[in-house]
Amino acid sequence: MIDTHCHLDAAEFDVDREAVATRACAAGVTTIVVPAVERANFGAVASICREYPECRPAYGIHPMYVGRARAEDLDVLRETLKREPAVAVGEIGLDFLVEPRDERSQQSQWWWYAEQLKLARECDLPVLLHVRRAVDAILKGLREIRVPGGIAHAFNGSRQQADAFIKLGFKLGFGGAMTHPRATRLRELAATLPLEALVLETDAPDIPPEWLARDDSKQRNEPAELPRIAAVLADLRGMAVDAIVAATTANARGVLPRPERRVPAVLIDPRPKIGPQ
């Protein structure tokens, strides 16, 4: 399985990050995409993705962090994307829910969104999109500045908006929110959208699935929850879990360049060495 969105660099994982990664592997999560949110954590994301071979980086400036970003951060982002083995530009996008919701704030978010779309096009990389309360504006940007596809992370729009993303070559990220029985509209989308448009994600440590959200002692989400999230999607669609896992993994591979790191055979050759070393 591929967790297409997990903030493994977050402070919530500082005490047991290695154990979290171990549990993910044991659960069958072979790849974890770790998106940056601002220039200040580009280094942390790169370091984690070097330390944990199942992790793959994305770099971008999140709309909730543009208030403290500087124009020169775009140059640093460009350099990082060209230097590191990134699978996407992200997490980028728009968030019209957070404060302040004034016109000036939205214009600032739009500028950063548009500039990072241009950078994704320049680097020939897909994008990981934050779309909260801003789906139509996000789609407008994608029509104006075409990029090599990507993922609408934590999708929670309408069927019409979903179809618009799909038409533009995007996949839609489904995770913990879909597991809550009261999320009827989102569960209907998960059940009826074309399977080839869906990918799995956790957004860990955020968006805990229903079984964590109902337990005050277990609010933190993590990649090892992905199999149960996949099982919920399988139940909603009336399919076998294995089929859901195979399809969503193939979808993630199709939209992200080289999501899975390949270890050179010489490093894993189990045969004993013969002759002088």
Tell me what you see in this structure.
- With 277 residues, this protein is of the alpha/beta class.
- It has a single domain (2-257), classed as TIM Barrel (Alpha-Beta Barrel), CATH 3.20.20.
- The protein contains 11 helices and 8 strands.
- It has helices spanning 17-26, 42-51, 72-83, 103-123, 135-144, 159-167, 184-192, 210-213, 226-237, 241-255, 265-268, and strands at 2-3, 31-35, 55-59, 88-93, 127-130, 150-153, 170-174, 198-200.
- An 8-stranded parallel beta sheet has the order 1-2-3-4-5-6-7-8, with helices on both faces.
- Strand 5 (127-130), helix 5 and strand 6 form a beta-alpha-beta unit.
- Helix 3 (72-83) packs parallel to helix 4 and helix 9 crosses helix 10.
- The longest helix is centred in the middle third of the chain and has 21 residues, at 103-123.
- It is globular, with a radius of gyration of 19 Å.
- Mean pLDDT is 92; it is low at 262-277.
Name its key features.
TIM Barrel, alpha/beta, 277 residues, 11 helices, 42% helix, eight-stranded parallel β-sheet, disordered C terminus
Summarize model confidence as the mean pLDDT: 92
Spans of 5+ residues with little confidence (pLDDT < 50)? 262-277
Provide the succession of SSEs. EHEHEHEHEHEHEHEHHHH
CATH topology category name: TIM Barrel
Helix fraction, binned, reads: 40-55%
Q: Label the overall shape.
A: globular
Alpha-carbon distance between the two ends: 38 Å
Number of helices: 11
Give a count of the beta strands, DSSP E runs of length 2 or more: 8
* Percentage of β-strand residues: 5-15%
The top-level CATH class is Alpha Beta
Largest sheet: 8 strands, parallel
Structural class: alpha/beta
Q: Looking across the biggest beta sheet, what order are the strands in?
A: 1-2-3-4-5-6-7-8
Gyration radius, in Å = 19 Å
What is the CATH homologous superfamily assignment?
Metal-dependent hydrolases
Level-2 CATH architecture: Alpha-Beta Barrel
